[in-house]
Amino acid sequence: MKRFLPVDQVARDARFRWVKDAERAEDPREGDLGNGNYQRAGRFSTESEDAPERTRRLMHGIFMGEVQALEGAGRTCWDFDTGEQTDQAPYALKLDMARQCWDESRHVEISVKLSDWMGTEIGEFGEGRGLYEAACNRDPALRLTAVNRGIEGLAIDVFATMRKFGLEAGDAVLSFCEDWMLADEVTHVKMGSDWLRRLTAEDPERRERALEFQRLVDKIFSRAGRGDSAEDARRYRRLAGFTDEDIDEAHDFLSPEAERAFRREMTADAHVARA
Ligand SMILES: [Fe+2]
Ligand SMILES: [Fe+2]
User: Fold this and answer.
1) How far is the CA of 151 from the centre of ligand 2 (A)?
2) Could you give the number of structural domains in the chain?
3) With CB atoms 3.0 to 4.6 Å apart as the test, which of 39, 64, 72, 198 could cross-link to 223 if both were Cys?
4) pLDDT over 90 for what percent of the chain?
């Protein structure tokens, strides 16, 4: 089996259509979510007319994220030799990733049932592959920083918001689904926070580079401390290894140009296959 499977080679059947970020941003159905950054999306309110449609779309996006999180965690077990060198992954990290595969499989199943409940067909909306692309980084420390701490950290914010939305809308199925996935995501985000430190403990230069990468990831993906569920999101992030300082610092947004440049850097390995 190939190591570092490029993003255009992941297994999908005919229901799925990969939509690149630029194309998605031009889809009028995307509304506020189409800016490619959930962090800046408008707030969810049970009063707004488009809330049911936006919820279906957002949950389909989360479903695709669960599929890719499963693929990414599985890849981290397979792509690297087991060991302590910088281009290797320690056995304990692979065990964490194997556990995460189990959780993400469950999230995929929950998301499929939630889609049924909401009247959404699998593949009804296009698939963005940003999570998988971030899971192609050749450095396992940066891979976990981008995927676990960054993107799954954002998933915490989304799950906390949607759990609250489900409670307010009287939709017990939605709020339970969000609650159960949220509980696991806190663990996944903590793995991202912890492994960056463990993997770079003996190498101050690598630690500094990784922390710089982490600061940029945090700025792109942290929504904690903003909006309706701000306190919830802050609480879950603290549980996941963020300090209050980390959360506050993440609120200084990057300029759009700086953000685009960093996103390119974060996903630069996504088209590189290795034997
Ligand atoms: Fe998940
Ligand atoms: Fe996860």
Assistant:
1) 9
2) 1
3) 39
4) 67
Structural domain of 99: 14-266
Please report whether residue 104 resides in a domain: yes
Ligand 1: centre distance to CA 104 (Å): 5
CA of 150 to the centre of ligand 1 (A): 13
Give the pTM. 0.92
**How far is ligand 1, taken at its centre, from the CA of residue 27, in Å?**
26
CA of residue 262 to ligand 2 center, whole Å: 22
* 219 in any annotated domain: yes
CA 15–ligand 2 middle distance (angstroms): 23
Q: How far, in Å, from the CA of 66 to the mean position of ligand 1?
A: 5
Question: Does 46 reside within a domain?
Answer: yes
**Separation of 71 CA from ligand 1 center, angstroms?**
11
For residue 154, the CA-to-ligand 1 centroid distance in Å is 11
Confidence (pLDDT) at 223? 63
pLDDT, position 38: 46
* Residue 118 belongs to domain with CATH number: 1.20.1260
Ligand 2: distance of its center to the CA of 74 in Å?
12
Over the stretch 22-42, which tens digit does the pLDDT of each residue have?
Answer: 777 676 766 655 444 444 455
What is the SS3 string spanning the chain? CCECCCHHHCCCCCCCCECCHHHHHCCHHHHHHHHCCHHHCCCCCCCCCCHHHHHHHHHHHHHHHHHHHHHHHHHHHHHCCECCCCCCECHHHHHHHHHHHHHHHHHHHHHHHHHHHHCCCCCCCCECCHHHHHCCCCCHHHHHHHHHHHHHHHHHHHHHHHHHHHHHHCCHHHHHHHHHHHHHHHHHHHHHHHHHHHHCCCCHHHHHHHHHHHHHHHHHHCCCCCCCCHHHHHHHHHHCCCCHHHHHHCCCCCCHHHHHHHHHHHCHHHHCCEC
